[in-house]
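Q: Convert this sequence to structure tokens.
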Amino acid sequence: MSAWDFDFLSIDGKPMPMRDFAGKPVLLVNVASACGFTPQYGGLQELHADRQAGGLVVLGVPSNDFGAQEPGSEAAIRRFCETSFGVTFPMTAKQTVVGAGAHPLYRWITAELGEGAAPRWNFHKYLIGRDGSVREAWPSRVAPMSVEVKTAVDAALAEPS
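A:
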């Protein structure tokens, strides 16, 4: 299996199969609009703008799992992200990302990396390689524009397609 075997709905309710991103590195991030880490949307957008031409996909996954910090509808989430942070990267419909009811991709990632790699809070990040394997994981406190995230993203972008 790989990340390309899973599907989401987009924040607009349209099918969003992960296989559409096959061959591109994906930074998968569970996000929330009312969290202390919410300003990371700015860094995610900056990373998206800087690395999109090279093939990076930043994929936001709104989730209300932690502290009920994403209570709004998809329309409200999209509006907030666009007006507050100028977000243009793709986002999924709201998802559960932990526990038995987690989206299947998150359950697969947790099975691949172990329970310790499951999200513990909003803005947990996973880097998926061009081949659909999970390459790296970072907790919420690691900013999207940190040296460690940018270095890993650049290494994934440098891999042959």
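The chain has a mean pLDDT of 97.
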